[in-house]
């Protein structure tokens, strides 16, 4: 309820800003709230936008479960999408196998890279935030170099790769939209992660490491192994997300900058309270307000940047709630020590 209250307050502040800025505020708010439901194509846009957000939210929620503030999913999304595109360009495989190989190649690479971040954290307690942000820049630079010098489409001035073979592309499953079969993979990933986190031994170790690392070590849990493995699993999921987005939505690799999808995972994980099953609803909520903001900007006088303001407010209120809860817990513990 506190999370919903934080979201509601953020939306309320956004609506007040719209009332102050728009010449026709009611039309703007209507397009923002109801617009995505007015056409089937718009609803398809919401689903398309939610697919990569689900993978990003899943990856970050697993990391947050272990109290790892790792933002490396952003770089994994970028390089993972490029690897999937390269597999789709260079390999010649049947239609049913080609996308699977492309996705697995991206996922394995993502797991290896994030495993490095996890190893440095577990072995030498290196700040995972700093290291992951550094890796984002490294992966972006390496990926851009590979794209520009080895796979660039030379017949156009736009920086993009040569076309991906059709056998590697994911099939659209809703006519009239770009909703592809990646949504099915995203839903399966959510339930697998939920089972893994709550029903498996390793999932228990990961949760205990995040809840109280010292107690977990005292109980015999290998917390270093848990940190490395959860980092690799998050990288694996992030790699899948980048691959699915590229071979599901595009016919060539077209990202000339970091897509921002990995950073969105932090907001989704916070909204979902780090619970995999809640990630679906959080991702669809964020996708919905983004499509609503896009419609509002195209049909009224309010810019699409309004959604960025609302996202910032949501993060601010949720972070404030978490900080106050942490501070309240410390006061309770201090009072208990006095007694």
Q: What key phrases describe this protein's structure?
A:
339 residues, mainly alpha, 13 helices, ABC transporter involved in vitamin B12 uptake, BtuC, globular
Percent strand: under 5%
Total DSSP E strands: 0
Mean pLDDT: 91
CATH class: Mainly Alpha
* CATH fold label: ABC transporter involved in vitamin B12 uptake, BtuC
What is the domain total for the residues?
Answer: 1
From the 3D coordinates, which CATH architecture would you assign? Orthogonal Bundle
Rg over C-alpha atoms, rounded to the nearest angstrom: 21 Å
- Helicity, as a percent range: over 70%
Helix tally equals 13
N-to-C SSE string, H for helix and E for strand: HHHHHHHHHHHHH
- Cα(first) to Cα(last) distance is 32 Å
Briefly note the structural class of the backbone.
mainly alpha
Residue ranges: pLDDT <50 for 5 or more in a row?
A: none
Shape: globular
How many strands, which pairing sense, and closed or not: the largest β-sheet?
A: none
Oligomer kind: single chain
GO molecular function, one term: transmembrane transporter activity
Membrane topology: Multi-pass membrane protein
Main location: membrane
Transmembrane segments: 5-22, 42-64, 76-97, 103-122, 129-151, 179-197, 226-247, 306-324
């Amino acid at each position: 309820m506190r999370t919903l209250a934080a979201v509601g307050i953020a939306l309320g502040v956004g609506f007040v800003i719209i009332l102050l800025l728009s010449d026709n505020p009611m039309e703007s708010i209507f397009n923002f709230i109801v617009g995505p439901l007015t056409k089937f194509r718009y609803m398809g846009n919401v689903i398309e936008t939610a697919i990569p957000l689900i993978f990003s939210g899943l990856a970050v929620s697993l990391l947050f479960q272990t109290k790892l503030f790792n933002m490396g999913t952003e770089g994994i999304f970028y390089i993972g999408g490029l690897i999937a595109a390269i597999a789709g360009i260079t390999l010649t495989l049947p239609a049913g196998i080609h996308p699977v190989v492309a996705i697995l190649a991206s996922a394995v690479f993502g797991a290896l890279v994030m495993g490095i971040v996890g190893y440095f954290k577990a072995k030498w307690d290196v700040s995972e935030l700093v290291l992951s942000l550094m890796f984002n820049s490294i992966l972006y630079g390496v990926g851009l170099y590979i794209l520009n010098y080895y796979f660039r489409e030379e017949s156009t001035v736009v920086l993009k790769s040569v076309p991906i073979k059709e056998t590697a592309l994911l099939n659209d499953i809703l006519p009239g939209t770009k909703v592809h079969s990646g949504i099915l993979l995203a839903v399966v990933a959510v339930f697998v992660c939920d089972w893994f986190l709550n029903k498996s031994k390793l999932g228990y170790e990961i949760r205990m490491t995040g809840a109280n690392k010292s107690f977990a070590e005292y109980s015999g849990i290998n917390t270093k192994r848990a940190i490395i493995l959860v980092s690799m699993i998050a990288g694996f999921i992030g790699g899948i997300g980048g691959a699915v987005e590229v071979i599901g939505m595009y016919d060539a690799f077209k990202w000339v900058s970091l897509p921002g999808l990995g950073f969105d995972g932090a907001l989704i994980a916070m909204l979902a309270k780090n619970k995999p099953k809640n990630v679906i609803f959080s991702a669809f909520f964020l996708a919905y307000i983004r499509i609503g903001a896009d419609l509002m900007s195209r049909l009224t006088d309010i810019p699409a940047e309004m959604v960025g303001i609302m996202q910032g407010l949501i993060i601010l209120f949720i972070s404030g709630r978490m900080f106050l809860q942490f501070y309240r817990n410390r006061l309770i513990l201090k009072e208990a020590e006095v007694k």
